[in-house]
Amino acid sequence: MITTAKRLDIIEEYYFSSKLREVRQLASEGKPIINMGIGSPDLQPSQAVIDAVVLAMQDENAHQYQSYQGLPELRQGMADFYKNNYRVALNPANEILPLMGSKEGIMHISLAFLNEGDQVLIPNPGYPTYTSVTNLVGAVPVYYDLKENNNWEPDFEALEKLDLSKVKIMWIGYPHMPTGARGSLELFEKLVAFAKKHNILLVNDNPYSFVLNDNPMSLLQVEGAKDVVLELNSLSKTFNMAGWRVGMLLGNAACIDAVLKVKSNMDSGMFYGIQKGAIEALKSDKTWFESMNAIYKKRRILTEQLAEKLGCKVYKEGVGLFVWAKLPDGITSAEKFIDEILYDKSIFITPGTIFGSNGEGYIRFALCVKEKKVQEAINRF
């Protein structure tokens, strides 16, 4: 019997990997499943993006190994995107690193900076991958609370009471996943000051800032942020390119270089055609965002109606690709609640518990379902 590595003893299979097998099994049995669980955009990239990929396929360089740092014009496109949309100036030569999706960046950053026993501040609730990757590299998760009565923002007094001597990285993400809390420039300034005071690498996970949000922000807007900040961003949600796996890491040049040392030993560069499509996507003007948000706004209105039909209280201030809702009084288990709906009404909704203990009592709906399907879900009740 070949034994697995000990690191697997402290992680589990990703929730959606296992749960979606269950959902697919129900669908194979003829159940009319409506999947409102995962944030995988069902909309298409723009035709210009698709055309750029098709054209690139004929380029004589298209099928060779590509640079670990991506095409220079892709890094320039990312720099222009940040300048035009966030008013952040970045040097494409050493402050930007294209990634095969921002999720891989979580692993690369962790491998580059964490030693065994180092501690990592992780939001509760927050993206589960922060915890699993921290465990995989032998570091120690330290959870900090985000709660509705504080608008899902950190309690800095509570943070200051922690022993921060072993903390190396702090993960944040605004607009926040799963709640949709917007954050603010004032919050970002506090976070940067906190990171500088305690010599912590502050990493902002920022893939949702253009979805139903009239004020996109970057942590790098804060003066002096580059001293301690890295930011992850992605084309997955913004440009409906989730399966293309195009992300970016931006910020401190020395930190970018450290991550490149890891990344260059783990892949051989992003496919040329995808890079060309990404370059075209990054040129999109405000009409693209307006057209996408017009669709998402209609879906959100209907999804809120569905949540309220279930007796839930919607977090109305939320932005991004999800609707976050508090369960009715008396419901003690989010997972039991969503399973009853899955098996009785064939609708899959995400329980808040997968994002941390502060997610108990909440559920999350993705806006990646067409209006007629959301209406059908409402009608089932």
Automatic annotation (TrEMBL):
Cofactor(s) required, per the database record: pyridoxal 5'-phosphate
EC numbers: 2.6.1.-
Enzyme superclass (EC): transferase
Keyword Transferase assigned: yes
Keywords: Aminotransferase, Transferase
TM stretches of this protein: none
Signal peptide limits: none
GO molecular function: pyridoxal phosphate binding; transaminase activity
Aminotransferase class I/classII large domain boundaries: 32-381
InterPro entries: Aminotransferase_I/II_large (IPR004839), LL-DAP_aminotransferase (IPR050881), NHTrfase_class1_PyrdxlP-BS (IPR004838), PyrdxlP-dep_Trfase (IPR015424), PyrdxlP-dep_Trfase_major (IPR015421), PyrdxlP-dep_Trfase_small (IPR015422)
Family: Belongs to the class-I pyridoxal-phosphate-dependent aminotransferase family.
Designated name of the protein: Aminotransferase
